[in-house]
Every structure is written in structure tokens, then in C-alpha cells.
Amino acid sequence: MRFLRALMMVVILLSMSVSTSYAEGQFRVGDQGAEIEEIQGQLVLLGYDVMADGAYGPATVEAVKDFQKSCGIKADGLIGPATYSALLGKDMPEINYGASYLARSIVASSMDYIGVPYIFGGTSPYGFDCSGYVQYVFANAGISIPRTADVQYEFGTPISTTDLVAGDLVFFSTYTYGASHVGIYVGDGNFIHASSSRGVTIDSLGSSYYSSRYIGARRIL
Prior knowledge:
Elements: H1 2-24, H2 34-45, H3 58-71, H4 81-88, H5 100-111, E1 123-124, E2 127-128, H6 130-140, H7 149-152, E3 157-159, E4 169-172, E5 181-187, E6 190-195, E7 199-204, H8 208-211, E8 214-219
Antiparallel strand pairs: 1-2, 3-8, 4-5, 4-8, 5-6, 6-7
């Protein structure tokens, strides 16, 4: 009897492991690297409005959904085996998240707070200011960073705009000289931030307002 119970537990644990592995065997928002760039490149060739920057951001999600609809595949914005095969004409490789797992976790977590109002000095989901929001999202992933935008700007490794990947911090000079506003890059030329006028939202680095005020980026991960 004990043997049967033990055997049943092994079977249950193995089935849980297989289920988890299958669920994780998808490319999704926050992932980055050469595989994502290849996926984006093929979407571009097919006429979808996405940038092949190797970072799986909101525009890539929408492009994938549109492609999936055109193929009769469930439009969830995730690249699983069926979508990968239909898009690239080959079997999907084994996914090894490695260093990109934290970035993916941070980007996915950042999306949970879209619409949260802006509150000057705010550091919780009841209301955020820009740096309070960034600090909160990184803390959820177990990463401690400074509280204010100007100090966050001195933290981490400086990187060029062309090297941006999901999870990097982007900085702007808005109401005062130096780094006075900060957001999290999410891919596709977009960043998520706590806007003083709209709360937590996604904007483009290429917009006239933010491109003229952009001062640099830092890599924390």
C-alpha cells in the first residue's frame, strides 16, 4: 500500500513537472535575444508593424496576435510550437531563459499596474511617482535599487539606445535639469512609466515629447 501511494506521488509530481515545462515553453513579453529578433524579423517581412530589436514588447505581442488570427491559431500573443512553426517554418527550439528570466519577470510585473494613478512621492499600487514605480517593480523581483530618478541614473551600467533590451531603465530630463523622470524599457521602442498626467502607461521613446527629453539608459540586470 505504501509503495502504491509513493508511486502515485511520483506520477503526480512528474505530471506537474511536464505541465510546468510545457507552459514555460513559449516566447512571451519580456523575453529577449536572437530568437526574438528572428521572430520579429519574419513578422516585419510579412508586413507587421514591429521593430526587430530582440526584445519581446507590446508591439510584438499585437503583431503575433494578428498573425495568429490570420492562421486560425489561438490569438494569445505567445509564441508556442504551433505559432513558431507557422511563422518560421521549422520546429521550435528548446527555450533556456537563463539571464533573461528576471527581465521577463520585471516586464510582466510592470504591466500589472497599468492605470494606477500618479501620486507625487507614491511608492505603492495605490499611487506611484515615476521612480517609486520603478523601485517597486524591481523590488517585486527581489532587486533593490535607489528611490529617486537622479540616484537611479547613477546606478547600474550606462548603455546606448541601440543596445536597449527589455528591463533596462530609460531616463529623461523633464521638469528640472538632469534625470528627473524614469521608465522601464519593454521592447519595440516602448517604455512603461508612471506619467504625471496619465498614471502608469506605455509610451514610445520616439514620441516628440520623450525623444527631446531623453538623456540615457542604465542596465540594472
